[in-house]
Amino acid sequence: MSRTVLIILLIIGSYLFGATKLVEQKWEKGKTFLNFLEDHKIPLKLYYNLDTGDKELTSEIIAGTRYQILQDDNGSIEQALIPVGEELQIHIGKDNGKYFVNLLPIIYETKHKILETEIETSPYNDIIKSTNNYLLANEFIQSYKNSINFKRDIRKGDQLVVIYTQKVRLGRQLGNPVIEASMIETRGVKHYIYRYKGRYYNEKGKELEGFFLAQPCRYTRISDRFTYKRWHPILHRYRAHLGIDFAAPIGTPVHAAGDGRVIFAGRKGGYGNCVIMRHAGGYKTLYGHLRRFARGIRRGRYVKKGKTIGYVGSTGLSTGPHLHFGLYKNNHAINPASTIKVAKSILRGKTKKDFLTYVKKYNKEIQVAINEKATPKKEEAFAFYMDVKRAKIQSQN
Ligand SMILES: [Zn+2]
Questions:
Q1: Of 180, 177, 178, which Cα lies nearest the Cα of 195?
Q2: pLDDT at residue 392 above 50?
Q3: Ordered structural domains, the chain, with CATH
Q4: Separation of 299 CA from ligand 1 center, angstroms?
Q5: 222 alpha carbon to ligand 1 midpoint, in Å?
Q6: What does the pLDDT read at residue 378?
Q7: 286 close to 324: Cβ distance less than 8 angstroms
Q8: How far apart are the CA of 287 and the centre of ligand 1, in A?
């Protein structure tokens, strides 16, 4: 931990002394980690010496990610920090003139925030106006999508409250905000939503429709789970795996986990033959290591949930036949396990009792927010992801 702080200080320190130059850049579309090393004349063995898992992870650098490099007078890299996922970053450094690469945690704070506002133009615009948080506005709209008709029911002066948490790094937003509870008033009626165990419910404990994924293939076992950041006690270093690995025999059909459009079908770094789909609500799914694609699966094709899009293989960096299945929300990798689900649920028994206690606590907080007219400090733009405009377009689909 303290090492990262040191590195950040080092960057800032060197910057102040002017011996070196700190540059912030955006990761270009289609760029690979190998391209990056090539561009900066860093030995490619830095990549080739990584183990399979870490090589795969370098395929996870998302276009638009902001990363920092520290250059010397000749323009060659002294240090680079490139975020992957929400909790780790690839660190390139120099030790006695020789480059090395490792993974370091991203240091962030989690802030609990409360917004209370009255509708001026629309919930979407007003949330952005008060918080500067596009993803929060997007998430709010998505969460009420199936219970409120925003165009028909909302009037100027209606009230809304959002209680949420946001990761913050160096004063800027990091990753997706999480709405814990919210309220919106329409025609004098207050509608509440609570996030409980990762899903949205109304005040009666009935789950509200969200984004449900179908199982992407029949598998024999899960060979690797999702993790943003894991300390490996034997290797003494951090690991991450931004998806679920389903081990399955070669040739097992792989199905689209939801309705959506194929936005990529081709080779993608360590993921070998790979399909990426875009779904409603800012979601994407990724299917890696495919043996081959199903007939007709190409960019631009609209596909229904359950349709075969390819077949399990072992292409790219893979130790055995499996499907690497990734899920992204607003271009951030999230754990697919919480989203793969068969049907909506209604809370009952002990769980329902616990839920109602939870509801009471948040209702109190919402009431306090209304009384105090809580408005959080406006956010600064994203620490690493600048794709806010795209998030906005998706929310309007
Ligand atoms: Zn994997």
A1: 180
A2: no
A3: 2-105 (3.10.450.350), 109-208+345-395 (3.10.450.350), 221-338 (2.70.70.10)
A4: 22
A5: 10
A6: 72
A7: yes
A8: 9
pTM of the model: 0.80
Q: Do the Cβ atoms of 180 and 163 come closer than 8 Å?
A: yes
Compute the distance from residue 277 Cα to the ligand 1 centre, in Å: 17
Q: What is the pLDDT of residues 28-62, one digit of tens each?
A: 988 999 999 999 999 999 999 998 889 989 999 98
H-only helix segments in 164-315: none
Position 380 scores a pLDDT of: 62
Q: How far is the CA of 324 from the centre of ligand 1 (A)?
A: 4
Ligand 1 centre distance from Cα of residue 241 (Å): 6
Cα 268 to ligand 1 centre (Å): 13
Compute the distance from residue 24 Cα to the ligand 1 centre, in Å. Answer: 29
